[in-house]
UniProtKB/TrEMBL annotation:
Keywords: 4Fe-4S, FAD, Flavoprotein, Iron, Iron-sulfur, Metal-binding, Oxidoreductase. This is Heterodisulfide reductase, subunit A (HdrA). The lineage of its organism: Bacteria, Pseudomonadati, Thermodesulfobacteriota, Desulfobacteria, Desulfobacterales. GO terms for molecular function: 4 iron, 4 sulfur cluster binding; metal ion binding; oxidoreductase activity. Residues 103-133 form the 4Fe-4S ferredoxin-type domain. Gene3D superfamilies: FAD/NAD(P)-binding domain. Its cofactor is FAD. Belongs to the HdrA family. InterPro entries: 4Fe4S_Fe-S-bd, 4Fe4S_Fe_S_CS, FAD/NAD-bd_sf, HdrA-like. PANTHER family: COB--COM HETERODISULFIDE REDUCTASE IRON-SULFUR SUBUNIT A, FERREDOXIN:COB-COM HETERODISULFIDE REDUCTASE SUBUNIT A. The keyword Kinase does not apply. The keyword Metal-binding applies.
Length: 425
């Protein structure tokens, strides 16, 4: 592709990551005339927001914001979306990059109508990553009902099996291609925005909090999926060991955060996430008791402070200022006892509850897998932007912990920086 670097409205931008920050960056650039490539490793766009039950500031479901963005993408010829795609290599300089992108096979082409016949024909079940493995789905599946692109996916686990042949035979539209192979394409772009997002910190690494040992200890993202109407329990928050409606839940704040052995920083969103999830439980179970163990509550801004005060006024929600030291399980009831020292009274507390929710922190994806480009990172894996050099930028939670509103604002600014690279080089 030949790019005129001087003319405004020319050139192209690559956005790596199709979560809320990536979508915002792409749309802001495309809607002022720039060609944009979105590169997303999952078979769908939407990122972590798609996995939420509700999100601030309006506590609306993901459909509320993502649906509009998906429509804008479909209507904009400047945007080209590549899913099941990962950047392998970036070479060149600001204004003139060549990016090698690996495309993994979906085994389903654009003829797909989402009729679902392939899923009905498939007998094999695979873990459902969208629900953090809390349930299983067919080997031919739609990631979730709002998935964009709206197209089924066939798991590589069934390729080469008799089940795969049944899936292909069930498709009336010739949409199943079992012989699809991975391929690499090269794209010429003027700037690259890394919107690679975040991952929940691995709770298995926090030895004293029992995750993985006791089934009734879940993470904040897991309870988000339990509360979601399209989650593994269709919106019912049930404890995993016996599908019982919990009468009491403890939220453990800073699970692995603000801890030099894990994540030394505050993830910004965890306190508000737990307060929000407490309202999920109270709406479902009016008599349930909620215990929130915290170091300090961080509710930045007037709107969040107001929400915090609303939750604090609930007579069935109890705030305990104290870091949880350990947890244990009663093998007969599978109830969990949380042990902490109340920092205000000095009292050692043993609180027994039906379920525990660990407010695990937000870790940038690049902390675990370094990106294949010349980027700078801080000690925690967040991208440090070099605005003087330009060309490549981190945005959203690839750059620092953000809530959805702040991530959108940051992504809008990053889109401008990417455009400036094209205009100035």
């Amino acid at each position: 592709m030949t790019v005129d670097k001087q003319a405004p409205g020319s050139g192209s931008i690559m956005v790596v990551g199709g979560g809320i920050s990536g979508l915002t960056t792409a749309l802001e650039a495309a809607e002022v005339g720039y060609e944009v490539f979105i590169i997303e490793k999952n078979p769908y766009l939407g990122g972590r927001v798609a996995q939420l039950n509700q999100y601030f500031p309006k506590l609306c479901p993901p459909t509320c914001g993502l649906e509009i963005n998906f429509r804008r993408i479909k209507d904009n010829p400047n945007i080209k979306v590549f899913t099941l795609a990962e950047v392998e290599k970036v070479s060149g300089n600001p204004g003139n990059y060549t990016v090698d992108v690996k495309l993994s096979p979906r085994y389903v082409n654009s003829n797909c109508t989402c009729c679902g016949e392939c899923g009905k024909a498939c007998e094999t079940e695979v873990p459902n990553d969208f629900n953090f493995g809390m349930d299983r789905i067919k080997g031919a599946y739609l990631p979730h009902e709002m998935a964009f692109p709206a197209r089924y996916v066939i798991s590589p686990r069934i390729i080469g099996t008799e089940d795969a042949k049944k899936v292909k035979a069930a498709c009336k539209y010739d949409a199943v291609e079992l012989d699809m192979e991975a391929k690499t394409i090269s794209l010429s772009v003027g700037s690259v925005v890394w919107a690679t997002g975040w991952e929940p910190y691995d709770a298995n690494r926090i030895d004293n909090l029992g995750f993985g040992r006791y089934p009734n200890i879940v993470t904040n993202m897991m309870i988000e999926r339990l509360a979601a109407p399209n989650g593994p329990t269709k919106g019912k928050i049930l404890r995993p060991s016996d599908d019982k409606a919990p009468e009491s839940i403890a939220f453990v704040q800073c699970a692995g955060s603000r801890d030099e052995n894990h994540l030394p920083y505050c993830s910004y969103i965890c306190c508000m996430a737990s307060l929000k999830q407490a309202t999920y439980v109270r709406a479902l179970y009016p008599d349930a008791k909620i215990y929130i163990f915290y170091i300090d509550i961080r509710s930045p801004g007037q709107r969040y402070e107001k929400f915090y005060n609303m939750v604090k006024a609930d007579e069935n929600v109890f705030f305990i200022k104290g870091k949880v030291a350990e947890v244990s399980e009663d093998p007969d009831t599978r109830n969990i006892t949380v042990v902490a020292e109340n920092a205000v009274t000095g009292e050692k507390i043993h609180q027994t509850v039906d379920m525990v929710v660990l407010a695990t922190g937000m870790q940038p994806t690049a902390a675990n897998i370094k990106l294949p480009a010349d980027l700078k990172y801080n000690a925690d894996g967040f991208i440090i932007n070099d605005f003087e050099k330009g060309g490549m930028f981190g945005t959203g939670c690839a750059a620092k912990p953000f809530d959805v509103t702040s991530a959108n604002q940051h992504a809008t600014g990053t889109a401008l920086k990417a455009i400036q690279t094209l205009v100035n080089k």
